[in-house]
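@channel sequence for tomorrow's demo:
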Amino acid sequence: MEVHKFLGNGFHEFIYQWALAYELFKAGLEFDREIEQDIFYQINIHMLQKRLSKTLTSQRTKHSQFTTVVSNSLLFLGAMLIVSALIYLLINLEKSDSLIVILLPIIVAGIALLYISQLIMPGLPRLRRRKRHEMNFTNR
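structure tokens (generated this afternoon):
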């Protein structure tokens, strides 16, 4: 209390620490400054687990929505590439020999986009995880 009475309010913490250390030294008391101590505080574990579970569910939902949008966009883009290339080929059927060289890579790219869109569908990782879990369960 002497330190606080003399210094008052408004100084940084280390000023009070040094002043208190001086007072303890002057009084002949042994002390250590800023020693680490384990502090245990009562935490409701169930509440913490619920909050963590809600956060993870929210993140999964956001990820699922994002992958759905990306997957649907790739599906649409791939289908449009294939359809537009085939329509262009049908309209210009008399030049089909020279156009097939140009349009074949576009059709292949469209098929690749369709395949990729199906790989990143949100439901697919869940199915893989469930199958892996069922295999582990049956092996026990």
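heads up for whoever presents: Residues 131-140 have pLDDT under 50 and may be disordered.
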